[in-house]
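User: Could you go from structure to sequence for me? I need the amino acid at each position, not a summary. Structure tokens:
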């Protein structure tokens, strides 16, 4: 493990005014997205879609890294250039999703465990050769009644820690992503309590597995009420509770935090990130690692047509720029609506 290299990459991933593009949708997930815009999901259409983002202005100005799917990290652009090389040429870092998804956890009804540890050291070595310098593993925690249980949380956080150690052994920075889902009608306070427990358990496991915290990036949910909750939260409330959470649960050794959007719409995810950063400097840079909240507008503008690529890139550039401003606490509604 090269600690200097890991630390350098982790800091680059959370560089000021930049964030991470999550373009790691599985083929099944991207098919659903393409179905929504009337585009057939094929190896070629998936490549064309991702290629126009990787060739955008946003990649140079507001994107620090891209999380890729196994298919994508091996693909070439239409002109034969490896997609990884397009990302590197824009000054961004290629990354890779390595978990194989959340599956029902035996004897824990309604809860899941993320799988993918089998054979991971060998896969990590191969991904490093393909250009990956960071990776992602997502644990899924659901709030419902007496859930989550301590057993499910501990099992998922232990898997995250084992994954992180394997990453670092291969000189790849692990993004650790413990997502407490927005699904449900739980309150802001309940989300805070569960997410705090999840993060505290995560860092206990990372410490136990001798993971080098300075060579990691945390990808958490914000503290928000469930999507079906009677009482919604303002960006200011989300910011206050989220920063309280981090102060109570995230070690200062962590180089940076990059939020998942977790079902928030485009502008909501930007406004909440901005409110958090407007509260002033924190021990960690706080930025974004968004999927749908970065891509939805561009995806719709593209709709599978070559003639729409410029418009789609413009939509992607705008969304990335807005989130880049929010990562510095400088986003405004005026900037959002400016043409």
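Assistant: Here is the amino acid at each position, in order:
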């Amino acid at each position: 493990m090269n600690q200097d290299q890991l630390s350098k990459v982790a800091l680059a991933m959370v560089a000021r005014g930049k964030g991470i593009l999550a373009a790691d949708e599985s083929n099944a997930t991207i098919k659903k997205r393409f179905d929504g815009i009337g585009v057939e999901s094929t190896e070629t259409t998936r490549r064309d879609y991702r290629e126009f983002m990787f060739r955008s202005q946003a990649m140079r100005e507001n994107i620090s890294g891209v999380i890729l799917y196994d298919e994508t990290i091996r693909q070439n652009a239409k002109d034969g250039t490896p997609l990884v090389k397009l990302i590197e040429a824009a000054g961004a870092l290629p990354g890779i999703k390595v978990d194989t998804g959340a599956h029902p956890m035996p004897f824990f009804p309604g809860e899941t465990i993320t799988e993918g540890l089998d054979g991971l050291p060998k896969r990590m070595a191969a991904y490093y050769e393909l250009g990956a310098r960071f990776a992602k593993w997502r644990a899924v925690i659901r709030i419902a009644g007496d859930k989550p249980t301590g057993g499910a949380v501990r099992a998922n956080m232990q898997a995250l820690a084992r994954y992180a150690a394997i990453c670092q052994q291969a000189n790849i920075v692990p993004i650790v992503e413990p997502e407490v889902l927005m699904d449900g009608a739980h309150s802001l306070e309940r989300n805070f309590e569960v997410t705090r427990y999840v993060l505290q358990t995560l860092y206990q496991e990372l410490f136990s597995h001798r993971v080098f915290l300075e060579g990691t990036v945390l990808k958490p949910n914000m503290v928000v009420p469930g999507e079906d909750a009677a009482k919604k939260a303002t960006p200011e409330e989300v910011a206050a509770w989220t920063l309280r959470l981090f102060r109570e649960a995230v070690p200062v050794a962590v180089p940076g935090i990059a939020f998942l959007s977790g079902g928030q719409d485009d502008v909501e995810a930007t406004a909440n990130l901005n409110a958090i950063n407007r509260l002033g400097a924190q021990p960690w840079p706080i930025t974004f690692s968004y999927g749908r909240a970065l891509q939805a507008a561009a995806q719709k503008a593209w709709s599978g047509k070559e003639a729409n690529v410029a418009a789609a890139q413009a939509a992607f550039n705008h969304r990335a720029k807005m989130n880049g401003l929010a990562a510095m606490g400088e986003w405004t509604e005026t900037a959002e609506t400016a043409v």
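One structural detail worth keeping in mind: The mean pLDDT is 97.
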